[in-house]
Each structure stands twice: as C-alpha cells, then as structure tokens.
Design goal:
The chain has one helix spanning 8-61, and strands at residues 69-70, 74-77, 80-85, 97-99, 109-114, 133-139, 144-147, 163-167, 171-176, 179-183, 203-207, 216-220, 228-237, 244-253. The chain has 257 residues and is α+β, with helices and mostly antiparallel strands. A six-stranded antiparallel β-sheet has the order 3-8-5-6-7-4, with no helix packed on it. The chain has a five-stranded antiparallel β-sheet with strand order 1-2-9-10-11, with helices on one face. The radius of gyration is 30 Å and the shape is rod-shaped.
Length: 257
C-alpha cells in the first residue's frame, strides 16, 4: 500500500506563503492601528486648541479695557471685580473716599478703584495725585468706598457716565518652554513681565505641548468708538510625531469709559 505525504519542497513553499500572508496581515493591522492613533491625536490637539483659546478669551473679556498690554510674548491685564456709578469723587483736604451707588448684589468688594482709565497709565499707581487708579480700597454694602489705611487720592478726571471699576491685581499669560503659564497675585509693575511669581500657587500651568516660542499676542488699543482687540496665535506640537497645529483667535474687549 503506497503512503501519501508532502515533499520537502512543498512544505517550504507553504511556509513561505504563510510568512508572506502573515507579514501583509501584520502590516495592515499596524497601519490601521497607527492611523487610528494619529487621528485620535489630531482630534485631541484640535480640542486642546479650542479649550486653550476659550480660556484665554474668557480671561481677557473680564479685563479693564485700558489695562490690557502686551510685549508680543506675554499679555497682562487687570480683571474687573465690580463696577458702579459714583455720586461724588474724593474731595476736600483729605480725600480718603467717596460715595457711590451700592452694588446690585448689595455686597461688598475690595481692590483698586479706576475712574476713566483713558486719562492716565493704570500701571503707574505711584504717580502723585491725581491719577486714574487708586490705592487699595474697600466698598461696603451701603456704597461707601474708602481707601485702605486712610490714604488720600484724587482722580485725574471725571467719567462721562460717572462710572468706576474695582479691579483685581494684574494677571499675566506667558509661554515658558512647552508650557503656557498664568501668573497672579503680584504687585503692579511699570514693565510687563517684571518680577513675576516663580512657583505655585501664583504661577499655574494653563496648557502644555506648545511649540517653542510659538505664542504671540497683538493688542489693538481701545478707542472711543470700539473696544480693544487682542489677537492670539500659538502652535501645538505632538511630542511623539512632531505634527503641529496652528491656532489663532481674536478677542474683543468691551470699551466702557
């Protein structure tokens, strides 16, 4: 009785064919998986760009219009904490406060008072009276505003609408390496970016994976007919694939004298 089987040549051919099929299958699965990973990474970068742009926009929309300034790499502003109408401005031999319409919430607030910020530099509070920005002050629920420690201050000029704002200490956004930092709780300085905090909690990481030196700000100052406009540009870079995404955003800041 004859025995049937495979010859050595046939076995080698089968092994070669299986190897070819396996290689093609593995490469197909690899390319498909990598494509899905790349697509997910691109979607993640796009989402990160939207989130970063929205965070910057929301922060700048709270700014006192005349306090927004930039040197290209960093942007600085003073957030508005509250605003109302004054009944009279500081006067007399010792102008230590003034009366105003109470806040809508009936609450109190603390900060520096700004009256018609177009009349001078709000980043120069050491200028002798008068000036557009006051020393630290407190407003109570009755609408009385008093400068802290009984300090005296007169404002440069009246507001056309008798408006005043209470502003917080300045905040700054700057890029450092691949990170976008937000700085807060520091003193008013005449030069942007001077004497910024170097650690938490006054230096916070707002975003990561920025391409080197890609963040830039361009500020169009406010006029009496339109608000300030801030243009923001930055590039997000994937640390593995080195793919990049360019993001640009414009923020309009309301012009309220």
């Amino acid at each position: 009785m004859r025995c049937r089987g495979f010859t050595l040549v046939e076995l080698i051919i089968v092994i070669i064919l299986l190897g070819i099929v396996s290689t093609i299958s593995v490469r197909f699965i690899t390319f498909s998986t990598q494509g899905a990973v790349d697509t997910s990474a691109r979607q993640q970068r796009a989402l990160s760009g939207i989130v970063i742009s929205e965070q910057i926009s929301r922060a700048l929309r709270e700014a006192l219009p005349t306090s927004v300034r930039s040197n290209g790499d960093c942007i600085e502003w003073m957030p508005v904490k509250a605003g109302s109408n004054y009944l009279n401005l500081p006067r007399g031999a010792d102008p230590s406060g003034f009366d105003a319409i109470p806040l809508p919430s009936g609450g109190s607030e603390t900060g520096r008072v700004v009256v018609y910020g177009y009349s001078g530099d709000v980043y120069d509070p050491t200028t002798p009276n008068p000036g557009p920005i006051s020393p630290p002050a407190s407003m109570d629920s009755s609408g009385r505003v008093d400068f802290d420690d009984g300090k005296n201050h007169r404002f440069t000029t009246n507001s056309p609408r008798k408006r005043f704002f209470i502003v917080d200490s300045p905040k700054t956004l700057c890029q450092g390496g691949e990170f976008l930092y937000r700085y807060q709780n520091y003193n008013i300085e005449p030069t942007i970016g001077a004497d910024l905090p170097t650690s938490m909690p006054n230096r916070e990481v707002l975003a990561a994976n920025l391409a080197s030196d890609s963040l830039s700000f361009d500020v169009s100052p406010p006029t009496l007919t339109r608000g300030a406009i801030v243009s923001v540009r930055f590039t997000l870079e994937d640390p593995d694939s080195e793919e990049t995404l360019d993001v640009s955003q414009e923020v309009q800041i309301r012009n309220v004298p």
